[in-house]
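Human: For the file, kindly provide a plain-text protein record giving the amino acid sequence and the backbone structure tokens, at your earliest convenience.
Assistant:
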Amino acid sequence: MTRVVREVMSAGAAAVEPMASLDDAARLMSERDVGEVLVTYDCDLFGVLTDRDIVVRALGHGLDPATTTAGRVCTHPPLVTVSADDTTEHAAALMREHAVRRIPVVERGGCPVGVLSLGDLALLDEPQSALADITRAAPDH
């Protein structure tokens, strides 16, 4: 079923500034139970930082998470984004084309307003799928 992204996205995505330490970013990911934070400065999307980025790009290369910044290891533009008014079909096509699991959602001026994940789409399109079940499950702490 095709809907508008704003109907299924996770609004109010977690965000850090480019100068935030990886320690701070990881702590925010843990608090919000997310695997990605947007790296923003004011209303500009500077990049995307995932838990994998922290492990592979920083820890895997011996960088200190207390002194290494989010801006140093995040994925920088050009980033794949969608508008909150785009269709979920369009968003899914972009995710497939660019092999990404999550995609930042931006308003017309480029200001980030949320994130759309494969799990969000699974809950919409295949509510009985394993991915939808995993998405609905409580975090394992």
In short: The two ends are 33 Å apart (CA to CA).
